Amino acid sequence: MSTSAERESMEYDVVVVGGGPAGLSTAIRLKQLAAEQDHELSVCVLEKGSEIGAHILSGAVIETRALEELFPNWKELEAPLKTAVTRDEVHLFTNERKSVKMPNFMIPPSMHNEGNYIASLGNLTRWLGEQAEALEVEIYPGFPAAEILYHEDGSIKGVATQDMGIDEHGEQKDSYEPGMELHAKYTVFAEGCRGHLGKELLSRFQLDADSDAQHYGIGLKELWEVSPENHEPGLVVHGSGWPLDDATGGSFLYHLENNQVVVGLIIDLNYSNPYLSPFDEFQKMKHHPVFAKTLEGGRRVSYGARAIAKGGLNALPKMSMPGALLVGCDAGTLNFAKIKGTHTAMKSGIVAADVLFEHLKADGAEGQVLSHFDQQFRDSWAGQELHESRNFGPAMHKFGMLMGGAYNYLDQKLFQGKLSFTLHDTKPDYAQMKPAAESRKIEYAKPDGKLSFDKLSSVFLANTFHAEDQPCHLKLTDPAIPVNTNLAVYDAPEQRYCPAGVYEIVGDSNPALQINSQNCVHCKTCDIKDPSQNITWVTPEGGGGPSYPNM
To answer: Is 526 annotated in the active site?
Structure first.
């Protein structure tokens, strides 16, 4: 360890930014390879959440293919996958009361879940963290990587953690502690969807110059305890259609163990109506009889929201650059045709570790562009899976839910994703927003406190906490734009697309945007959907944000 005038530094072979499935898989695989070949290798993982798994949010139905590569004995090691999928249901919701249940033969193969498990991805990630520590990976939760460090030649040197003890005016408090520099031969960025350092890398190295615009959804989820008579462990329910008149997306209801279910809604962020509120669409959805019959009489335990990178192969950027690799949802490896990304994210981390280890074992120079990683990922089963589903999202965006669904049925069922042409969708989600004057207003019913709830009580269940008197982590490039443009043209859509009540227009005669950053659940939707691209999400002080239990 060395000390500079401001910050201390530590040296590692590999620093991994992000303690999610992709980052931990990278670290675990590196240490496994080092142990197998008796090679010394120092690996560190930085995690912005207060603990591993605190910020992890997903449905989730887990495909175990990548997990089995890391730990063939995962059952003996008691990985928290307890509820095997027993059957699937897929519904087309036609209105607030009716739905059509799709016959099994009409469900595309990508939507079948035989052999998969319903689980809390947060708990699986915590378990992966334990396995990583057992392999002597150094894990530092509550230390967000806030800055990328570069060598003079422009290659990546490592990262620096957040300075602690800065007040809202940027002044040092009595509790001030400078951040730590972590230098590495190679840095792996695994921040999850819309990572703020990943954004910098995409721009600096033009990693997405040859790919389509990335596309996103917002996923909203609740964990419920329900009556035993309403519970069927292993049942997976997916749906599309109502209530999404102004957007595309889909709903889900998964029956876990212990009389618990998870219910959620994913809305594509390419919607055009500024009056649409993803949160209120979700609350409305739960009143449909397909969901209500399970939830009625139950108790809501937790709530959360998270953006999803769903552009697939067409939007996948270059994942290698001088001194660093980009993995998992930081790059966009989710297979939206399956509504799953954990197994592909983990596989990207495994491939990254294989490439890094071979290079480092051969005493390879630091700071190189390991461009063969990109091809090795695309050649892997995960890359092939993304290739087969590459037309799924563009078809839905171009042709709509019904025609796009029909196209995808033929593509996935009959041709198994092997059609010779590729559809593209190059218009970014934020650019789809229409002016308020051209859009219909949407009136949402008040929540009943039984099936539907308000934002603030929901945020309370996310256990969100941010230390007081710190700089706002939601940065406005131009403070005038929220009123002069977003309010004037779009009627301030940030009040509605945010699922946590962070953004609020206050004052009638002299309106202003109030940012309630303490409510933020780190979903990143504002960074994605703001029509003026004026909001940038950065890391708050270490450990801040939600603390999701069993999510």
So the answer is: yes
